[in-house]
Amino acid sequence: MPHIAKKTRERYKTIEILPNILTKGDLEYCVARLMVKYMGSYDVCSDCGRLRTREHRYSDLHDCCKAVDHCAHEFERLYLDKREDDAIASNGSAFWGL
Known about the structure:
Helices cover 56% and strands 6% of the residues. By secondary structure, it is mainly alpha-helical. It has one domain. Helix 2 (24-40) packs antiparallel against helix 3. The longest helix has 34 residues, at 58-91. The chain is elongated and about 55 Å long.
């Protein structure tokens, strides 16, 4: 989930200085570059506590994809679901027979 501790957020404040993202393609590019950055970033080894770069193991690649997926689902939950609820309240549900 994208809701991290405020103290941790401080580390990423510079992301706010990016120019406005104007198109869906631009947004996809930025997300892709963040994924690449994550995969090339350092990680703390759980065995020895030392920093190491992420390997391209299945679990690392999966974590990268799922982080983006979870963020998208949270965005949908917070913003799109509300719009759907409003549309159902106004127009009625298409699934009324279930």
